[in-house]
Amino acid sequence: MRDPYDILGVARSADEAEIKRAFRRLAKKLHPDANTSDPKAQDKFAELNAAYEILSDKDKRGQFDRGEIDGDGKPRAPDYSGFGGAGTRRPRGFSGFDGDTIFESFTFGPEGQSGYTRRGGRPGAGGGAGGGAFDDIGDIFGFGRQQRSAGGGFSPKPGENVELTLPIELEDAVQGANKRVTLPSGKQLDLKVAPGTLDGHRMRLKGQGDQSFEGGVAGDAFVTISYAPHAKFRREGDDLRSELMLPLEDATLGAKVRVPTLSGAVELNIPAWTSGGRTFRLRGKGLPKAGGGAGDLLVTTNIALPEPKDADLEALMRKRRDGKAS
């Protein structure tokens, strides 16, 4: 795996907020749902999440920066070449090094910026008595970013909530459906959309939001339902509108025709001598209402001439027109 800093496009000195902003920006760009034509979209998104998992965790980030783990989070083999040759362990009590370079610890300052603090082995060099060797131990273990509770302990800050939008077909709103949603983390969940679900309905998925940086509980994910545009129906509040192409003979003589609705086709009685532009109301065949029930479906007729051209009909129409002119 590549360097997590390169994957997120941030500097090694980036703080938690910068890392989080970079992840959110790239998560939207690389999300599999937004790249359905890219066969490697899932792998790219997984790589992004793996990088974020390392850099958003203080301990893992420190281990990576110190070379203790690789970009996949796996431990690296220790390097003892600086202790008199490869494979040679440092002897107990060994003191043959400069006291200013014996011990280095990765720390986080109050703003979350990273850096190295040198620890010497000599008094006065930052590592012995009076040297303040552990004056920043709270930062080393992440306490500087936590809030004290009333009892004197530490109350970890919870993770942030996540907002998602789930488009559904109008038929799904009326009949109900099972839908799959992909979280920013890459995790996929199956959700049940109940019959009669309203546009803008908001569902809470507890504990499915962002993970806490400090060991607290995860945030929640909120999924908002959004009605997708329909090829046959046009929305007007709770009502729907559609058009019906009516053959000339049915418009003239009357007929019973099948009309599509969100819950299946129904039979509509067309009276004789129905003109184009006439609207029929099918009650309760529209969209769910907030107070219960459903709106109506308004069907407007359009007259369709025969295909191919009918010579007899054309002669009849010419005769009628000539008769009116005389």
TrEMBL record:
Gene name tied to this protein: dnaJ
Recorded GO CC terms: cytoplasm
Domain J intervals: 3-68
Protein name: Molecular chaperone DnaJ
Species this chain originates from: Azorhizobium oxalatiphilum
Molecular function as annotated in GO: unfolded protein binding
Positions with biased composition (Basic and acidic residues): 61-77
Region (Disordered): 61-91, 108-128
PANTHER family the record matches: CHAPERONE PROTEIN DNAJ A6, CHLOROPLASTIC (PTHR43096:SF10), DNAJ HOMOLOG 1, MITOCHONDRIAL-RELATED (PTHR43096)
One biological process term in Gene Ontology: protein refolding
One matching Pfam family: DnaJ_C
Coiled coil: none
